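2024-03-11 09:14:02 DEBUG pipeline.ingest accepted 1 chain
2024-03-11 09:14:02 DEBUG pipeline.ingest length=113
2024-03-11 09:14:03 DEBUG pipeline.predict start
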Amino acid sequence: MKLVTAIIKPHHLEQVKEELYKAEVNLITVSEVLGHGRQKGVTEVYRGFKETGNLLRKIRIEIAVNDNFVEPTIKAIIKGAKTGKTGDGKIFVVDLAECVRIRTEERGGEAIG
């Protein structure tokens, strides 16, 4: 089991979700976050408004997957978020020690779904 975390630009969220659904990855958690990478301080335009400063709006997507879904998940995120320009984001993959479905108390890969 792995936890895939992606940080992407907000306006790429819908396209990333579409690509994830095509890859049969349906269980995602999405959060609005602030941060910056190498572009620190660069002005971005988001929904017609210029954003300047050290922290830019980003979207954090977290997806718990069984091992056979790791690569399809990564490929779907890249397909939905990649422009080839600075600031496209990052994907982090870490081992997931345990997952428990509260309702049924299932554990491990069965709890992920």
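2024-03-11 09:14:41 DEBUG pipeline.report The helical segments are 13-22, 70-81, 109-112.
2024-03-11 09:14:41 DEBUG pipeline.predict end
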